[in-house]
Design goal:
Layout (H helix, E strand, L loop, with lengths): L15 E3 L9 H12 L3 H8 L10 H18 L4 E4 L21 H10 L3 E4 L15 E5 L1 H7 L18 E6 L9 E4 L2 E4 L1 E3 L10 H16 L3 E2 L7 E5 L5 E5 L8 E4 L7 E5 L8 H4 L3 E2 L2 E2 L8 H9 L13
Parallel strand pairs: 1-2, 5-12
Antiparallel strand pairs: 2-4, 3-4, 5-8, 6-7, 9-14, 10-11, 12-13, 14-15
Helix pairs in contact: 1-3
Length: 327
């Protein structure tokens, strides 16, 4: 679907990134672009975006507009061909959730069509293929038009200079989503049906160490933010891989893909607690050998035998030159 002001290249709906509800910036260059776009709307469109009531806890319509514009800018700066996958359903955004610190609401579904009708974005509506077991379903895709790109070009900010993880929660509790009868809800991912996983509400008082765990990880993320991690010999800032369903997937190699989260499973603080998020976790062992940190080459230490080695050392049996599994 196009509004006549489309980006030069046709949109590849399978080359996308998820809409980021944790992006923010107070740079005046960004605010000027948002103001110019907002001023281009009619009074009726202003009213539709703003709403007639002042809902407590919800972000204003202009905040929603700004977050969408910022994410479009990040996608364009990352790769002009990259589009954004964005949910437009009413239950996609939970206001007041610790996982939605900017209080983004279903008002997104009002802002997006207005941006499209005014020629600021290209849009390809999402699909819901009930006849094919859900295979091929996807969210709506959007991308900046040439009209919007002309406003972006003078800005000159790199994505890592923006608040790409503004107030984002880094400690996540998850569990399987269930229906009214308590049965796990299944969704199609790729060629298989999988249990739908959702983020669970929790209080910091639910676990005695959550505040310290979060503080430690926030400090680590601040360290990563100030550290330049790259694969400098890439011709384009991305790595291609083939998913299990046979489709191509591109991993973006950049400075705004370094945010690390710690995820606990099955609604329990005792299960998993693994670290996820950095782009280096999504690429092959061979590609990881090419990583440089602050322009220095790196060595990846193989920890696959670590726990067995610790046990052997505790028993006084560890021998560095022998295979740990032969002891």
């Amino acid at each position: 679907m196009s509004n006549g002001n489309n980006n030069t290249n046709p949109m590849n709906v399978w080359y996308s990134k998820p809409f980021d509800v944790h992006i923010w910036s107070d740079y005046k260059e960004i605010n000027q672009v948002v103001d110019q776009i907002y001023d281009s709307f009619t009074e009726d469109e202003h009213l539709a975006i703003t709403g007639r009531s002042n809902n407590q806890g919800r972000a204003s319509g202009k905040v929603h507009l700004k977050v969408i514009i910022l994410d479009l800018y990040v996608a364009w700066k990352t790769d002009p061909e990259l589009c954004i996958g964005i949910e437009l359903s009413n239950n996609a955004y939970k206001v007041g959730s610790r996982y939605n610190a900017l209080h983004i609401s279903p008002r997104v579904a009002i802002v997006v069509p207005i941006l499209f009708s005014n020629g600021w974005i290209d849009l390809n509506a999402g699909s819901n293929n009930r006849a094919n077991n859900g295979i091929g379903n996807r969210t709506t895709r959007i991308r900046a038009t040439d009209t919007l790109i002309r406003l972006f070009e003078p800005i000159g900010l790199e994505p890592y200079e923006l608040g790409t993880n503004h107030k984002q929660e880094c400690i996540i509790l998850r569990a399987a989503d269930t229906d009214a009868e308590g049965n796990p809800i299944k969704i199609v991912k790729g060629l298989r049906k999988k249990t739908k996983i959702i983020n669970i509400k929790y209080l910091d008082s639910d676990h005695p160490n959550i505040i310290q765990i979060r503080s430690d990880l926030q400090a680590y993320n601040e360290f990563l933010k100030e550290t330049y991690i790259d694969i400098p010999d890439l011709k384009r800032p991305r790595i291609e891989r083939i998913r299990k369903d046979g489709k191509k997937q591109y991993i973006q190699i950049n400075q705004n893909g370094k945010f690390v989260k710690r995820i606990f499973s099955r609604k329990s603080w005792e299960l998993n607690g693994r670290f996820y998020g950095g782009w280096w976790q999504q690429i092959s062992k061979e590609d990881r050998k090419k990583i440089k940190i602050d322009d220095y080459p790196t060595v990846e230490v193989d920890y696959k035998g670590l726990h067995a080695s610790i046990l052997a050392a505790q028993m006084g049996m560890y021998q560095p030159k022998r295979d740990i599994y032969e002891l």
